[in-house]
């Protein structure tokens, strides 16, 4: 999973190469496809993980906190995940690409 997360976060969906993912993971491309029947299926793992993490970021916010405390906590949590979680970075890139693609197709 980390090999594919690294590939998606570096190259995006279109540039991600299943053969590079498999080589990085020390497996054959066929073995990769045995676990994930398509690149889309593999990418979906990261976008669904990202959605769950995104919902968790605001947890711990208090109603009685000073006004800037809650945005600071969310931003700090987001930046911490960006630095430390390759799967989060992959999910973010894929979600952003999807949103941009949807935006272009509506024009």
Structure description:
Helix 1 runs parallel beside helix 6 and helix 4 crosses helix 6. It is built from six helices and no strands. It has one domain: Tetracycline Repressor, domain 2 (Orthogonal Bundle). The longest helix is centred in the C-terminal third of the chain and has 20 residues. The chain has 107 residues and is mostly helical. The radius of gyration is 17 Å and the shape is elongated. The chain is 78% helix and 0% strand. The mean pLDDT is 85.
End-to-end Cα distance: 35 Å
- Contiguous helical run count: 6
- The coarse silhouette is elongated
Summarize model confidence as the mean pLDDT: 85
Low-confidence stretches: none
CATH fold type? Tetracycline Repressor, domain 2
Total strand segments: 0
Query: What is the CATH architecture term?
Result: Orthogonal Bundle
Number of domains: 1
The fraction of residues in strands falls at under 5%
Multimer state: single chain
Helix content: over 70%
Question: Rounded to an integer, what's the Rg over CA atoms?
Answer: 17 Å
Largest sheet: none
- Structural class from helices and strands? mainly alpha
Q: What is the CATH homologous superfamily assignment?
A: Tetracycline Repressor, domain 2
CATH top level is Mainly Alpha
* Topology as a string of helices (H) and strands (E): HHHHHH
